[in-house]
């Protein structure tokens, strides 16, 4: 699949639920209204749409959410999609998780063909963890990370940089991932969906964070790429890698190779734009399966050049994109 700007689209992110057992402050408000079940694609429908993308050239699939591992029966989807890894039609099946259910599922994920996963963790302090996630349990996540490592899964930690919250903890996080043999990626907060706080208060430009990190750690630009938007640096002191995802301070759109399917079957060609294609209506219509390939082609033909995120006080606290990250999938 080649988009109008000549970019090959070979990476699909699939959000399997908008629900979550946490309420991270930059992601959700405390009282969220979730989608009615009938609007959410069944596991069979999610598999069917994913399979169509694989036939069209997608080589990497990331399962996300909401919290993907709270969706009932989700291991069945992993097992079925894992068959494409075994047949060589897919290079990578992975997921982004908050880690709360990993102790239960790590072994099954490995068996399904998952080898790497991202765990989101913003702090190593149990009290701060409770504060930022509102409902999370730090110990459970730590046990989950250990279980995933024991199962043979390679972990990358995703950390959202929040001003005044975890900027002072960055050195501890880098040292910890170094000891544990994991990589870490820092992410800027993105203005997606209404939350209870001012986004401009939370926003910490990663250019500033990187400068702070460089005072204590020796960073060397790395050639390493995961097919994602991260810029990687090797850390001489730990032998590990640090990635920076800077959607607001640095435009990573030129090399964008991905599209995102929401749990309601809407295909978003860009995380930061509203334009979408309703694949649920297509597959639920008469002869839907036959129309699916053409609907995907038409959508890829509309992939925009880039996003228009801005976070400033003039935006009146209104998000640039009204849907939450948990709907489109991070
Ligand atoms: N629940 C899973 C998790 O937390 O890893 C998967 C979904 S979550 C929406 C995916 C990623 O998006 C997480 O790393 C989270 O920290 C990040 N995220 C959520 N809201 C964000 C925002 N407004 N700006 C930047 N990153 C955000
Ligand atoms: Fe849930 Fe992930 Fe959003 Fe946190 S970031 S509320 S864990 S979906």
Q: How would you sum up this structure, described in words?
A:
The chain is an alpha/beta fold. The protein has a single domain, classed as Aldolase class I (TIM Barrel, Alpha-Beta Barrel), CATH 3.20.20. 32% of the residues lie in helices and 17% in strands. The protein contains eleven helices and twelve strands. A twelve-stranded mixed sheet has the order 7-8-9-6-5-4-3-2-1-10-11-12. Helix 1 packs parallel to helix 2 (74-86). The radius of gyration is 19 Å and the shape is globular. It starts with 10 loop residues before the first strand and ends with a helix. The model has no long low-confidence stretch (mean pLDDT 90). The structure holds S-adenosylmethionine and iron/sulfur cluster. Residues 20, 22-24, 27-28, 65-67, 98, 120, 326 line the site of iron/sulfur cluster.
Low-pLDDT segments, ≥5 res: none
Strand order of the largest sheet: 7-8-9-6-5-4-3-2-1-10-11-12
* Helix-strand topology string: EHEHEHEHHEHEHHEEEEEEHHH
According to CATH, the homologous superfamily is: Aldolase class I
What percentage of the residues does DSSP assign to strands (E)? 15-25%
Bound molecules: S-adenosylmethionine, iron/sulfur cluster
Total beta strand runs:
12
How does CATH name the architecture?
Alpha-Beta Barrel
Question: Into which percent range does the helicity of residues fall?
Answer: 25-40%
Assembly status: single chain
Mean pLDDT over the residues: 90
**What is the domain tally?**
1
Structural class: alpha/beta
Number of distinct helices:
11
Global Rg = 19 Å
The CATH class is identified as: Alpha Beta
CATH domain topology: TIM Barrel
Cα shape = globular
Give the termini separation.
22 Å
Query: How many strands, what sense, and barrel or not for the largest sheet?
Result: 12 strands, mixed
